Amino acid sequence: MNIKINDSFLKINDSYLFSTINKKVKKFISINPNADIIRLGIGDVTLPLSKVVIDALEKASAEMGVQKTFRGYPPEYGYDFLKEAIKKYYSRLNVTLDMDSIFCSDGAKSDLGNIVDIFGDNLVYIPNPVYPVYLDSNIMAGRRVRFMEGNKDNNFLILPKGDYECGIYYLCSPNNPCGTAYTYEELKKWVDFAKRTGSLIIYDSAYEAFIKGNEFVHSIYEIEGAKECAIEVCSFSKQAGFTGLRCGFTIIPLELEAMGHSINKLWSRRQATKFNGVSYPVQRAAEAALSPLGIAECMKNIDYYMENARMLSKLFDEKGIYYTGGKSSPYLWILCPKGMKSWDFFDYLLENANVVGTPGEGFGTCGEGYFRITSFNTHERTKEAIERLRKIL
Amino acid sequence: MNIKINDSFLKINDSYLFSTINKKVKKFISINPNADIIRLGIGDVTLPLSKVVIDALEKASAEMGVQKTFRGYPPEYGYDFLKEAIKKYYSRLNVTLDMDSIFCSDGAKSDLGNIVDIFGDNLVYIPNPVYPVYLDSNIMAGRRVRFMEGNKDNNFLILPKGDYECGIYYLCSPNNPCGTAYTYEELKKWVDFAKRTGSLIIYDSAYEAFIKGNEFVHSIYEIEGAKECAIEVCSFSKQAGFTGLRCGFTIIPLELEAMGHSINKLWSRRQATKFNGVSYPVQRAAEAALSPLGIAECMKNIDYYMENARMLSKLFDEKGIYYTGGKSSPYLWILCPKGMKSWDFFDYLLENANVVGTPGEGFGTCGEGYFRITSFNTHERTKEAIERLRKIL
């Protein structure tokens, strides 16, 4: 055909990071079919959904088979019952959300991928290393990107710098892949910076439910003034184990405006045009996940994963390996031993311990020489992996 | 904030067509709370999901609560079991699909909205009138649009014209909103045209399951050569009643290439980056909908709706009102009586018969003076609506 493609697609890696890892592991398995692979790589949950969530999912599924309770197209931005549950969830932080600021979706990845649609050609500041979707989606849109470098010196926690200009800033806290999180004071620096420079913060809080204690903030809206400068993207994937169910939401405050235009209105229009809502049974499941019993059951699962994180942390402490994360995050971000490069360490672990992790370089150039290990497997498998790692590290 | 928004958003209607209708109806209800509104407007199904579909949905939901059967992230483009079912479904047309050409999604609307991402600045030819997403998504992307005019003279069935150039062509058959469909010969004209001009056809077959008899094609791939020039977008929404469950799929043949670039590869990359797959229980439900029993049960529902279409057609035949559709489509596209304009007729129907339809003008300027009526309600409500319309038309 003689039609033009979007050239920007030629500027990104051929393959999305986790697709590449998948292929390498598949290939290894085909050569070593008896290998007992332990996956501590892709950030996927492993525990089944909690009872109150399953009950809601099953009940809503049954409703779809009965004329009286059957539902067709969902309301564009989510059923009120789910938006009310989200609003109530935020009230625990003393954050009051307008119902119209809540947009339910099939997941944070979709929202992060699609949010680029509504913005023009701005400077886009992206942490390095970080979840690859922020960068890839902006490169695909032909946007100008600047990296905010994470490293050992700043312990992979990025704060505003003097030479940062007006633009769109992606922040992720607790961070994927580094597991670091912002305190109130640190995030306030960002909000103040954004307000001072007229910038927008896109705040990814997918892992906020893993935060222990009161040291770190859960939502950027805990900071005064954030409603005028920040979008918050959230997910049920890690909090409630919904990676296979698909549900998330994005908060776009009504107060958020750029050069006279309401960002909320733009996203409303974008979603009304290109999205048809979240599956009804899934919305009921999400509502249940935010009920008091649902939250308690989700927290039990999170505590389970964090016990893995504790055991993994202990291993790296023992070995004197530098790492961040593992305390308020399911991710541990380790410095590869012996100055090994990320992908070399990936191969080393896969071949010598049959353990899969994620090479830090896949998250950005500043991730080179680092490696992400996840806490999402079972206790048994994590212990087994720890034993294997103990021998070869 | 001082950041730039996507200016193209300022070039489209403030509100998506069906959002606008929703608001008008809500307002009418608030003023006339006792009005018995019959909705023949938004193309939403009303019959509950069939038993085999519900069984699959419930079984998969239960699996998500048990460690042994719990599933996390779905494979990027859909589980093999669903892709196999789709491949088998197409084989009934003697069309053989490569597994890698099948991309499952949460619905045709998402795919149609997002497919613009992978293309560059081409001439985009869009029927007028047609489903608003094609136009809105391209305007949002700043694309140059030309309209292919449907009217009484061509009976709202658009064929290639001499002055049409190389570009991206959207076709919808059976058509939304006009209900017209292409025969083999007519669609072959399009495929030949596309091959001759190096154009791409984006073929929306969301309503193919409504086709009666052998006169019209179900898939563009029934035409030889279509794999080199066409993408096909499909949906479980209307066929299987999945408007509330959310599932669709897009076929991008491996043969499809533009100036040396594989379109399949581009969409693979786009989806791997910005989408996280379809909900597992919903995929099992879709698989069930494509089983022999599932198809039989879906066809029963479709026959039910088409009985409504038959009754509505009879009314308009009786009144001598020009219309298209209603035979292989759940939509009837009528000429507004007395030369009334679309939105005036919308108000007239709402106020005098408490019936909601969709103003043709909402689908494009060539829809002015026309009106879309849907067959998706119950027999009882459709009969009631017909009686009311009979009095006022």
Please describe what this structure looks like.
Chains A, B: Keywords: Aminotransferase, Pyridoxal phosphate, Transferase. Chains A, B: It catalyses: (2S,6S)-2,6-diaminopimelate + 2-oxoglutarate = (S)-2,3,4,5-tetrahydrodipicolinate + L-glutamate + H2O + H(+). Chains A, B: Pathway: Amino-acid biosynthesis; L-lysine biosynthesis via DAP pathway; LL-2,6-diaminopimelate from (S)-tetrahydrodipicolinate (aminotransferase route): step 1/1. Two copies of one chain form a homodimer. Chain A is α/β, with parallel strands linked by helices. Chain A has two domains: 13-49 and 293-392, Aspartate Aminotransferase, domain 1, CATH 3.90.1150; 51-291, Type I PLP-dependent aspartate aminotransferase-like (Major domain) (Aspartate Aminotransferase, domain 2), CATH 3.40.640.10. Chain A is built from twelve helices and 15 strands. A seven-stranded mixed sheet of chain A has the order 2-8-7-6-5-3-4, sandwiched between helices. In chain A, β11 (323-325) and β12 (331-335) form a beta hairpin. In chain A, α2 (51-63) runs antiparallel to α9 (280-289) and α10 runs parallel beside α12. Chain A starts with 16 loop residues before the first helix and ends with a helix. Chains A and B meet through α2, α4, α5, β9 and α8 of A and α2, α4, α5, β9 and α8 of B.
